[in-house]
Amino acid sequence: MLAYSSWKMKELVGKHIQVYQELSSATYFPVIQAPIGVDSTYEGWSHHGDDAVYCLLVPLKPGRGHSFRLKESITEERPKRTFQVRVQLKCTCATEEAADTTLCFLHHPDKRQRRHWREHFLSVLCTGSYLDVHKTVAWFQEFVMSVWGVRPKMRRYHVKMLPSLRCCMLQLTDGLGRTFLIELMFGLQQCDLDIYLCSRSREVATCPTSTTWLASSAVAEVKFFQHIARQVPQGSYHLKCLHIFTHIVAMAAMVATDVPASILKSLILGAENVGCELDGDTEVRMKQREEMLSQEMARLLKEAMAAMVAIDILASILKSLILGAENVGYELDGDTEVRMKQREEMLSQEMARLLKEVEELEQMSQEQGNVAWRAMLLAALQQWQFWAIAAVLFLLLVQELPYKGWVVKELVEELIQVYQELSSATYFPVMQPAIGVGSTYEGWSHHGDDAVYCLLVPLKPGRGHSFRLKESITEERPKRTFQVRVQLKCTCATEEAADTTLCFLHHPDKRQRRHWREHFLSVLCTGSYLDVHKTVAWFQEFVMSVWGVRPKMRRYHVKMLPSLRCCMLQLTDGLGRTFLIELMFGLQQCDSDIYLCSRSREVATCPTSTTWLASSAVAEVKFFQHIARQVPRGSYHLKCLRACTQILAGTGFSTSTMKVIVMHLLTTTPLSGWCRRDFMLRLKDIMQYLRCCLEKKHLHHFFIGNDNVPEEISLPPAYEMAEPLNLFQGLAQDPAAHTKALSEFEDIYDGL
């Protein structure tokens, strides 16, 4: 997670600097350039985990009419590592910085105004004529707090400024309560090199005054590790070696993490290797460190043993549920069986490789005679065992779906933001933030890397229009298919128009008014009704025309897959991974959680392209979110649903049928009964419920005529007052289909 978080923090700071550049482009304050990620987090070897500090160096350039002149400190050190930065005026009369001489500090005709500018600048950022670190930091801290939130990405985080004299320490908290620490230090490039004079540096211990700037090789170090990364073979362990050494030394709390490798090695291998005797205090510290390492090794060993026991238990469960198909009476198809065998073989090879490395480490530890060296290897050995266990658990149990789903949703939101910016003054429909729906966003998808990320994009009528729903002519109650009539409305007296010239109904030019109307209808409508196919085609064309205007979009290659009732985007990232995104459009019905959608799995037939289908996809997502807040921690209700859909995959029973059954059971059985120990009992309950519904040829729709729907889910009045809708009506009307379904179910149930 560190690599992604580092990139996110750097992007966020970059956005902030863009705001500064826009606001200060015509001022005489310093020019701030793009931030440079430095220190262990951006070098790739940080051992702080979630406690990592994201350190960024912000280069400063002299502003309009100024120059920086370095003054070396009076020390015997060679080369000099502490400097003062003198701020000097320069003439801008003949340069592109000033359109005329009135902007020049040296030659402005009004001496009083010229002196005021100069004194104001010096009072804000300088002490005397020298750039002051403390004042520069305080000035930027004040700027950060004054403009935080002007960009959408900033509003996702709550910011707190931590006290610091020589750098800006930002503490950001996101909506999930996660905290990120960002350290911004300022730097002045020295002679166009990779050495900067920084407001803070770990290389120089003392800072005699607030006007002292410290030479830092942080940028050079980052570039060094980037250079090494291009030279070493794939899978090099040089960063892991540095990570392990700093981790062991940090436990002993003896030295800082940037001590040279030779000193680290001499401390760990023992003083006798460097030909010097240990004094009393050092010997005590070494013994304390050795004892600490032994305790840490014992603790890690205990955790590893516990994890191994957990693996045995989980392996038996996984084998019975996934690998041992014969135990549950569910036959794997040929392709699935081949993939499972390949996966099993791959895991075996990976474990064999890890065990071989562990044996090599053990052999190395036996060959060494030094106690500290053995302790280090044993600690590293325990880390290898721990991470080997974690890797296996991750491969077997953890899916990337929640994270990928969040990334996909954020990308779609960027796309909608672009649309909103470009269409704000038009009469086209207004798009609202996308809503994640379907099994992927409900948390129980079993498709893994083949998951489709389905999002519903709500539409509101655009400027000067309104939507009126027309029910289809069917005996169904409540109606589940509609047509959407697009009507004009007067905007003369509303905030939508500054004057009557924008009103469709009262525009003085009838020809222009008719042209607007005909253009809108030809693009999105058939007759006066909103056309699903035309709406989808219109948005597909928009996506392809604007893809790449935002940095996030440029990370993916987009391909539009053919579809009439939804936008199917196939995205491919730089690593060759593919994401399938399904965007369907929806119109909210009666301010409820029921939407009229361009596509719905609940309604099988779509007679015309102007037919919009009632969908409870948003209500289902809200239902599972409601249940997640009610069930005890570690509930297995989603795992039960996933297991049942896997068992019945390839049969005539749809995933939506199993979802309805599980939703009914969640509202009629105690939620405490969905724990791990009752996993098999709940599976049996689900299957018995399905059998009962098949025998009665009746399965109630969960949201229509059901008094057990949670109150926080908003439904149209027609849904609340209607009689329960039978989802198995087709089986009741077709005896042959009913007989086939019963036979298919009995075959599966007998195996279970």
Write the layout of secondary structure elements.
Elements: H1 2-24, E1 31-32, E2 36-37, H2 39-43, E3 53-61, E4 66-72, E5 82-89, H3 111-125, E6 126-127, E7 130-131, H4 133-147, E8 158-162, E9 168-173, E10 179-189, E11 196-198, E12 212-216, H5 218-231, H6 238-252, H7 261-269, H8 280-323, H9 325-328, H10 334-367, H11 371-397, H12 401-423, E13 430-431, E14 435-437, H13 438-442, E15 452-460, E16 465-471, E17 481-488, H14 510-524, E18 525-526, E19 529-530, H15 532-546, E20 557-561, E21 567-572, E22 578-588, E23 595-597, E24 611-615, H16 617-630, H17 637-647, H18 655-668, H19 679-696, H20 717-721, H21 729-733, H22 735-751
Parallel strand pairs: 3-10, 15-22
Antiparallel strand pairs: 1-3, 2-3, 4-5, 5-12, 6-7, 8-9, 9-10, 10-11, 11-12, 13-15, 14-15, 16-17, 17-24, 18-19, 20-21, 21-22, 22-23, 23-24
Helix pairs in contact: 6-7, 8-11, 10-11, 17-18, 17-19, 18-19, 19-22
Description:
This protein is of the alpha+beta class. It has four domains: 2-231, Beta Polymerase, domain 2; 241-396, no CATH class; 401-615, Beta Polymerase, domain 2; 619-751, Poly(a)-polymerase, middle domain, CATH 1.10.1410. Helices cover 46% and strands 17% of the residues. The protein has 22 helices and 24 strands. The strands form four sheets. Strands 1, 2, 3, 4, 5, 8, 9, 10, 11 and 12 form a ten-stranded mixed beta sheet that branches. Strands 13, 14, 15, 16, 17, 20, 21, 22, 23 and 24 form a ten-stranded mixed beta sheet that branches. A hairpin with a 6-residue loop joins strand 10 and strand 11. Helix 17 packs antiparallel against helix 18, helix 18 (655-668) crosses helix 19 (679-696) and helix 19 (679-696) packs antiparallel against helix 22 (735-751). The chain is globular. The chain starts with a helix and ends with a helix.
